TrEMBL record:
It comes from the Bacteria. Keywords: Nucleotidyltransferase, Transferase. Its EC number is 2.7.7.81. The gene is pseF. GO terms for molecular function: nucleotidyltransferase activity. It is an enzyme of class 2 (transferase). This is Pseudaminic acid cytidylyltransferase. It comes from Hoeflea ulvae.
Length: 230
């Protein structure tokens, strides 16, 4: 049994009710549910939440909410892995042990069914713990600078001050959309960002963090542009 787990707690400080706020005409979480359903790789699409309103909206859009997440896993500081491990254990106790588990973020409107399928194929054809999408930084990270206490600048890597950009190694970051993982990796709390993971490289135009209202507006503009392109 392959399951999708969409973590969607009710609290959100910077964007209130972010997981169910309307995005491009639908509750934000509905886009993740729809992608999971369209992928055809999941036997169950589950939402893990501590909020009854989130649960109701998730069910209206076709997801299952078979349990309410305990309060100790629903605060501002709870990392992703324990939330997925909890959901996985509930499924194992009530429906049988899953063979693969995919965490899909509730605020991932750019997640595609094709990417979910391709990432699952990478996981099942390897011995990796996890597979998830990454994208490249738009500027060499070796040229990044920090602000000093005196209000001046200094390079993180001053040894690359004169290195040509084409000679610098390309760097990638987590796309923040989904993570396919093996049950033993989730249960064991294995690190996502390490040698046990395989990347699925996606283009930058399909990646957008949504942490502020400015991010939200940017994401909606990107989303509509991509829809218009077909």
């Amino acid at each position: 049994m392959r399951i999708a787990v969409i973590p969607a707690r009710g609290g959100s400080k910077r964007i209130p009710r972010k997981n169910v706020k309307e995005f491009a005409g639908k509750p934000m979480i509905s886009w993740s549910i729809a992608a999971a359903q369209a992928s055809g790789v999941f036997d169950r699409v589950i939402v893990s939440t501590d909020d009854e309103d989130v649960a109701t909206i998730a069910r209206q859009h076709g997801a299952e909410v078979p349990f309410m997440r305990p309060a100790n896993l629903a605060d501002d500081h709870t990392p992703t892995v324990p939330v997925i491990a909890h959901a996985q254990q509930w499924v194992a106790d009530h429906w049988g042990a899953p063979s693969a588990v995919c965490c899909i973020y509730a605020t991932a409107p750019f997640v595609r069914a094709e990417d979910l399928r391709e990432a699952y194929e990478l996981l099942s054809g390897s011995d990796a713990d996890y597979v998830f999408p990454v994208t490249s930084f738009p500027f060499p990270i070796q040229r990044s600078v920090r602000l000093t206490e005196e209000g001046r600048m200094e390079m993180f890597w001053p040894e690359h001050a004169l290195t040509r950009s084409q000679d610098l190694e390309e760097a990638y970051h987590d796309a923040g959309q989904f993570y396919w993982g093996r049950p033993e990796a989730w249960h064991g709390g294995r690190m996502l960002f390490g040698a046990g993971s395989i990347p699925l490289i996606v283009p930058r135009y399909r990646v957008q963090d949504i942490d502020t209202m400015e991010d939200w507006a940017t994401a909606e503009a990107k989303f509509h542009a991509l829809q218009n392109l077909g």
